[in-house]
């Protein structure tokens, strides 16, 4: 069956370093992937969308890559800051019913 | 970007009572809204798709008589948790897309933390 997997373990990074989060997919080829940020007790917020024909997309300190050979998307935060601490969710395109199913998310903690 | 307002943000109720959660699209019309449920440290679980003017589509395992969804207008969807029990305690979040976007980003409400005593 089609599957989206994120590293469910928390990621702890020293402030100023680059944080890299992984989203792997199996048994299908999504036309794009979306990344969202969720803070505790809040709804997710859209960050970036990368299409299968785009190798890389950037937005300020954020960078997303899409490797269709490895079936993987990487989400990078450069010059990380404690304010970047949150859970980051990967989401594939919606199913036939136009609903988006999210990955399990990776909890990122940036320590000062 | 588009704004989705969800109310209340937090509710505490006694077991056996019903709780209504509202989700409004403030600056756009949403023919479809989605309701998610989230337990602590877990990801979002889609409960149902709310369709304006028609019945909601529920995901497998979600009791439609337990979680009543009404989408009576293009800007409002409501989720009513009927006869709530402690196991219904969770974080409920709604979302919507702006018109014309079939497959792209979602805008989320701020969520409702439900605690059933």
What class, by secondary structure content of chain A?
mainly beta
Taken as a percent bin, the fraction of beta residues of chain A is over 45%
In terms of per-residue confidence, which ranges of chain B show pLDDT below 50 for 5 or more consecutive residues?
none
Helix content of chain B: under 10%
Low-confidence stretches of chain A: none
Instruction: Provide a count of the helices of chain A.
Output: 0
What is the radius of gyration of chain A computed over CA atoms, rounded to a whole number of angstroms? 14 Å
| Largest sheet, spatial ordering of strands of chain A | 1-3-8-7-6
Which bin fits the share of residues in helices of chain A? under 10%
Shape of chain A: globular
Structural class of chain B: mainly beta
pLDDT averaged over residues of chain B: 91
Q: Assess the beta-strand content of chain B as a share of residues.
A: over 45%
Provide the succession of SSEs of chain B. EEEEEEEEEEE
Describe the structure.
The complex is a heterodimer of chains A (112) and B (117). Chain A is mostly beta strands and 112 residues long. The mean pLDDT of chain B is 91. Chains A and B meet through β5 of A and β9 and β10 of B.
Set out the fold topology.
The complex is a heterodimer of chains A (112) and B (117).
Chain A: E1 3-6, E2 11-14, E3 19-26, E4 32-38, E5 45-51, E6 56-59, E7 62-67, E8 72-77, E9 86-91, E10 106-111
Parallel strand pairs in A: 2-10
Antiparallel strand pairs in A: 1-3, 3-8, 4-5, 4-9, 6-7, 7-8, 9-10
Chain B: E1 4-7, E2 10-13, E3 19-25, E4 32-38, E5 45-51, E6 57-58, E7 67-73, E8 76-81, E9 90-96, E10 107-108, E11 112-116
Parallel strand pairs in B: 2-11
Antiparallel strand pairs in B: 1-3, 3-8, 4-5, 4-9, 5-6, 7-8, 9-10, 9-11
């Amino acid at each position: 069956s089609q599957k989206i997997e994120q590293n469910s373990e928390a990621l702890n990074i020293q402030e100023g370093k680059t944080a890299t989060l992984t989203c792997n997919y199996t048994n299908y080829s999504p036309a794009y992937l979306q990344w969202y940020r969720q803070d505790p007790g809040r709804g997710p917020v859209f960050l970036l969308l990368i299409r299968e024909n785009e190798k890389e997309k950037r937005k300020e300190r954020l960078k997303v890559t899409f490797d269709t050979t490895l079936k993987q998307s990487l989400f990078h935060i450069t010059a990380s800051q404690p304010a970047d601490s949150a859970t980051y969710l990967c989401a594939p395109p919606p199913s036939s019913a136009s609903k988006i199913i999210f990955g399990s998310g990776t909890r990122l903690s940036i320590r000062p | 970007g588009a704004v989705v307002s969800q109310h209340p943000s937090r509710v505490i109720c006694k077991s056996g009572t019903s709780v209504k959660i509202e989700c409004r699209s403030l600056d756009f019309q949403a023919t479809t809204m989605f309701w998610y449920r989230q337990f602590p440290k877990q990801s979002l679980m889609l409960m149902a798709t709310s369709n304006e003017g028609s019945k909601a589509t529920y995901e497998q395992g979600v009791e439609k008589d337990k979680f009543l969804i009404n989408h009576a207008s293009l800007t409002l969807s409501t989720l009513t948790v009927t006869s709530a029990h402690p196991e219904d305690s969770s974080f409920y979040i709604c979302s919507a897309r702006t018109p014309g976007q079939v497959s792209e980003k979602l805008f989320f409400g701020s969520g409702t933390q439900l605690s059933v005593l």
